[in-house]
Amino acid sequence: MTETIWAGGPRTGGPPVDRSAVLEALGSVRDPELDEPLPGLGFVSGLEVEGGTVRVHLRLPTYFCAPNFAYLMVADADTAVRSVPGVRQAEVVLDDHFTSEEINSGIAQRRGFQQSFDGLADDELDELRTVFRRKALVNRQQRLVKALLDAGRTTAELSRLRLGDLPASPELAAYLERRAELGLDVGPEAPLVIDTDGKPIPPELLERHLQFARLTRVSIEGNAGFCRGMLATRYDLPTPTVAAD
Amino acid sequence: MYEKDGEKYFVVDGHTHFWDASEENTKNKYGEGFIRCFYDYHKNLSPEEYVWPLEKYRKYDEPTMMKDLFEDGYVDVAIFQPTYLTDFYHKGFNTTEQDAVLKDKYPDKFVLNTSFEPRLGEAGLAQFEEKVAKYGSKGVKLYTAEWHDASKGWKLTDPWALRHLEKAQELGVTNIHVHKGPTIWPLNRDSFDLADVDDAASTFPELNFIVEHVGLPRLEDMCWIGTQEPNVYGGLAVAMPFIHTRPAYFGQIVGELLYWLGEDRLLFASDYALWHPKWLVEKFVDYQYPMENEYPELTANVKRKILGLNAAKLYDLKVPEGVSAGDDGTGQDVTEKPAIPVEASVGGHSE
Lengths: 245, 351
Known about the structure:
The structure holds two protein chains of two kinds. Chain A is mainly alpha-helical. Chain A is built from nine helices and five strands, in the order H-E-E-H-E-E-H-E-H-H-H-H-H-H. Chain A starts with 18 loop residues before the first helix and ends in a 10-residue tail after the last helix. Chain B is of the alpha/beta class. Chain B has helices at 29-45, 54-58, 62-72, 96-105, 122-135, 159-171, 195-203, 219-228, 242-245, 247-260, 277-286, 300-315, and strands at residues 2-4, 7-9, 12-16, 77-80, 110-112, 139-143, 175-179, 208-211, 232-235, 266-267. Chain B has a five-stranded parallel beta sheet. In chain B, strands 3-4-5 form a three-stranded parallel beta sheet. A two-stranded antiparallel sheet of chain B has the order 1-2.
């Protein structure tokens, strides 16, 4: 991680909050668009624990990053931090963004997205979140399928494989996580390759499906690499190494 | 004209600016944030020797631009893509009026595009018509994230946007360059989604829709609509500079685009002064995929089309003798691509 973790102040009253538990909770929060946890992206710039009070600072690659995704990340980080045992008060703050004010006060006052951006939105962000969970599913499915093909499986086999046929792997775990959050079947009998509604892909459409999945992965991973680079330039951080290149 | 290894390349820079983000012209914190964000793009993706100081970057002069593009940068013709941003800058960031100064002085060097503002309604139509009459533009640059009073953006399918596109067709303004940005109305939707371009391209088959920055960060949307709509093109501004910092990623972008859209629908661009065309042209002509891949080949002919011949076709530019890609191209890709099954589409498309 590239962020500075501030030393916690003196702890007064109540059970002490475990810093590593807060960090772990933040690690469960993803950038919905990039399909990666915030700490690994360098978006967590500060963490302060004082007794039962936790204060988190977030930052983004540009001043003009899309406000809807920014709001989701702050809201999710807020929820995650509050779930840590012992946390009585939490404050999650987005710095250096053109809508910092709207987002920070909206989260602090629990106003939801639509009210935080009065007149500029006609709903909450549930639909947006679902659209990007679907993209994330395709991305994770592609990573798993690529690993299986690299390990010697054939395209023809993919159509027949069920989740229970696969050995445990990080790719499988990530894929199952994305399936579960969309409410799709993760049982051992469920087919491996599915569309975003959970329907199996017929063998004759499999190649096309995989080509589009590859494209989706190129897009998501490319964006993540670009965001890392922009963040490094913006905050004068060491140039990130890009695994994909 | 660029020549390398006996090959000649006619270079059309499909996306250039003559902007003013000087402190005097900057209206508010949003204008300041905008140019600093642009500057980070410039610093992040340029080779070190091409990085300008911020002061120069905020506002550069005519001799600098003429030298960078036409003396050093191998550009034969540059297309101006105005970006008004009058809510951020007193006199606008890069308006048709500003660009017209150079177009008047060097008529053969520039293609001058203009813009329209659908949220002005009837007045917008009248202003658009006036600009086209005055500047003879054959194209418009539309920035859908542009702010206007309380509005933070618009879609091509908004009723007044459709009226303006009808007007474009009537006036013979055939090239519609679309640039997506981080805001739109309503703000809870994905502002980078290209579904409105898809719809507009179906509604106006005689217009060409050039999606700037090849839809990044939604390359998948770009390729998806590219297979559906023969009149959708990809402008490579912002994608080009990855050739230096992340050559494999650049190969993936171009490879996917060549696969889904084909070689006749991609346009080179520097986005000057975001990046300098000299190194982009040199590196692109030398480029070979650095990784194993299953993408279409990047031959000299393919590069010639992308660097200039495709844009020359859209804008009726005279290509010098001896520069040819060996075929006439079609303006659209004719190789049949497998349709993407509807169920594979994951974006917010209306199915």
